[in-house]
Specification:
mainly alpha
Length: 171
């Protein structure tokens, strides 16, 4: 089995776990920052409702986010886990670290830096620094869980060349 296939499988399992953890964290963030999220939604809807015939409320959108956020996090974890797992498998030999778990953790931190820290900056002006910092803190935990699980499973499932005593010789 190739490293990419092994990474894909390990990433899928890690992605499911990541999605569950991320869904819980997203729920916590939505509850803790409800007034901030509602304020942002109301501003956006004021503009949108003025130009579209469909009318909705911030509370309705917030309720959808609360109810469907967990399921969407798991679906996102599955899809992201597959893609990122395949990438992890493809670059496995170039990732720093002596063990597969260490490599998974390094890869997880790199993902966190890109996805949470850098891309999260896009929301900084909208939601503020407290929301951003909580998001990157929870994101680090989720990324380390993904990296640990993907690295651990990759190490268990990767194919290794047969040892000399395992090779059979035929006369």
């Amino acid at each position: 089995m190739s490293n990419t296939t092994t990474g894909l499988k390990a990433g899928l399992v890690a992605g499911i776990l990541y999605g569950i953890v991320d869904g819980v964290f997203e729920y916590i963030i939505l509850v803790v920052f409800k007034s901030l999220v509602m304020s942002v939604l109301e501003k956006e809807l004021a503009t949108l409702n003025a130009i579209t015939p469909v009318k909705t409320t911030a509370q309705a959108l917030y309720n959808i986010a609360i109810v469907e956020g967990f399921a969407l996090a798991i679906i996102g974890g599955l899809i992201g886990g597959l893609i990122l797992g395949a990438i992890f498998g493809a670059v496995y030999n170039r990732v720093p670290g002596k063990s597969s778990v260490a490599k998974g953790l390094v890869f997880g931190v790199i993902l966190w830096l890109i996805l949470n820290v850098l891309i999260g900056l896009l929301d900084l002006s909208t939601y503020g620094s407290s929301y951003y910092l909580v998001g990157i803190g929870f994101g680090l935990i989720a990324a380390l869980i993904w990296g640990y699980v993907a690295g651990f499973l990759f190490g268990k499932w990767k194919s290794s060349p047969p040892q000399q005593e395992e090779l059979q010789t035929f006369p």
